Amino acid sequence: MVRFKNRYVTIEILSPMIPDNKPLSLKSKIFHDTLVDKIQQLHGDFGVAAVKTGLMTKYCNENTRIAIIRSRHGPHRFVTSSLPFITKLGKLDVSLRTLHVGATLKHSFKFIQKHQRAYLDSMWATLKTDDERKALEAAVMDFTKADVKINIETLG
């Protein structure tokens, strides 16, 4: 049996149009399709064929604007080289910043936890009530935003 190695790319989605305290309406399907289109444009059919098998959006958090993409080891270079060239997700103007490339999802979530804790500390000063703070902490530290149904559809 052959073991396939994966790489998990943690990215931050920056949008100058929407303020930092407002969540993005970001769907992992739109993000996935935009990424495949950009890989097609930059690396052609070979790039898409190499990436398509293992490419999956594992996590999207609209509040902190962080996403995790899983790709196979090797073709993950096509993914990481295409990310800076994505300027639109749907109708939204964005710029993508690669934060971390890890070998396991566990290490990516550890990195995100540190990153989101720093984000949470910076946003707490802007909130007035304790209820708002608790709601923001629950939204920021929620790691269940993986849209598994859409990802299973793209595998078939």
TrEMBL record:
Coiled coil: none annotated. Keywords: Nucleus, rRNA processing, tRNA processing. One of its GO terms (biological process) is rRNA processing. Gene3D superfamilies: Ribonuclease P, Pop5 subunit. GO terms for cellular component: nucleolus; ribonuclease P complex. Its main location: nucleus. It is found in: Nucleus, Nucleolus. The keyword rRNA processing applies. It holds the Pfam family RNase_P_Rpp14. One of its GO terms (molecular function) is ribonuclease P RNA binding. Belongs to the eukaryotic/archaeal RNase P protein component 2 family. Component of ribonuclease P, a protein complex that generates mature tRNA molecules by cleaving their 5'-ends. This is Ribonuclease P/MRP protein subunit POP5. It comes from Bicyclus anynana (Squinting bush brown butterfly).
